[in-house]
Write a structure and sequence with these properties.
This protein is mainly β and about 350 residues long. The chain is built from three helices and 14 strands. The chain has a 14-stranded antiparallel β-barrel. The termini are far apart. The relative contact order is 0.16.
Length: about 350
């Protein structure tokens, strides 16, 4: 009995913990600065180039029975108005998100369309407003769940009736979000600062599974600062932080990194970046070392959550890996016919 009880209780506690967390917070990444459309709709189109493709993969707590698997894929591009003053431009993007967690395969699948407009306030200073409109589906499976009615006195018998009735196992709804970003930078484009805020789920859509229980998706507020300083010819110092609130959930995630340029030749740029992030709410949750490679218009980053909260009893400090890749396209434009957008 002493051996059976811990093996029964620990997964149960883990499941309850995960269900509460999934209901309380959105999809989020440790490399938040590499997931711009999840951080702020106004960051759509804010990059060096004309077109960008990005992918994000995260596997959290794989060594316990109920883990998280998250994927995000994004595309965004710029459009330059012919009659715009200065270096104003539009940004357009598409964002696909998938998240699966727990024994019930509680799943979030969403597709968002984003648009932004960047106004040049002064040289090297841009103010951007953005909106995001999309649809999402939240669903779960009850086949692998067990209930107290299936306990026969000695063991769980999955053949016994559950005694439960489910009105819905999926819910489809629309979603609307807004945000603003301010970009400050120097002519070298390596010294820059972005800071802003966003309000997600402005419409607070219903996402309930029971007909007589109206549950609305809580607003998420995201505030951040992402900066880089050129220290010398080949070294940059990077600092970034975000604070996010969603109902009772709080996340504070600061980080520091250094970027070393091994080759600064135009069109052949090669750089390595290393740093660490720290995630906490009421208590410190995880230390997250990060490494990135930047080659020409291709970038890739890897981070790993080292869990240091009380939950390390179940995780053995193994939070999980996160992988990010990005590819940018810079169009070759005829001389005298194009505007040079200074956004880096």
């Amino acid at each position: 009995m002493d051996k059976v009880l811990p093996n029964t209780i620990v997964p149960l506690v883990v499941c309850l913990f995960l269900v509460w967390n999934v209901g309380a917070q959105d999809i989020h990444f440790a490399q938040f600065y590499n997931a711009p459309q999840l951080l702020n709709p106004a960051l759509t189109g804010i990059f060096n180039g004309d077109t960008r493709f990005m992918g994000h993969y995260r596997r959290q707590w794989a060594n316990i029975p109920a883990d998280y698997l998250t994927f995000s894929g994004t595309y965004d591009a710029k459009m330059y108005p012919k009659k715009a003053e200065g270096n104003d431009f539009w940004g357009f993007g598409v964002n696909f998100n998938y998240d699966n967690a727990g024994y019930s395969s509680l799943t979030w699948t969403g597709l968002q369309l984003g648009a932004s407009y960047s106004r040049e306030l002064a040289k090297n200073t841009f103010l951007t407003g953005g909106v995001q409109l999309g649809v999402a589906n939240r669903s779960y499976k009850s086949e692998d769940l067990t209930f107290d009615n299936q306990w026969d006195g000695d063991k769980f018998d999955p053949g016994l009736p559950t005694g439960e009735s489910f009105d819905n196992t999926a819910d489809f709804f629309a979603d609307f979000s807004v945000g603003a970003n301010l970009r400050l930078q120097k002519d070298d484009r390596r010294t820059k600062l972005d800071f802003g805020g966003a309000l997600y789920h402005l419409n607070r859509a219903r996402q309930d599974f029971f007909d007589n229980n109206k549950v609305r998706l809580p607003n998420r507020f995201a505030f951040y600062g992402i900066g880089a300083i050129k220290l010398g010819g080949a070294v940059d110092f990077l600092a970034r932080a975000t604070v996010q609130f969603q109902k009772t959930y709080r996340e504070y995630l600061p980080g520091l990194a250094f970027k070393l340029y091994l080759d600064q030749t135009r069109g052949k740029e090669l750089a390595l970046q290393a740093g660490a992030n720290l995630r906490f709410n009421e208590i410190t949750d995880a230390i997250i070392p990060t490494v990135e490679l930047h080659y020409k218009t291709f970038s890739a980053g890897v981070s790993y959550d080292i869990n240091i909260s009380d939950f390390d009893i179940a995780t053995d400090q193994r939070g999980g890996p996160e992988i990010w890749v990005s590819y940018r396209i810079e169009k070759v434009k005829a001389l005298g016919v194009f505007k040079t957008c200074p956004i880096f």
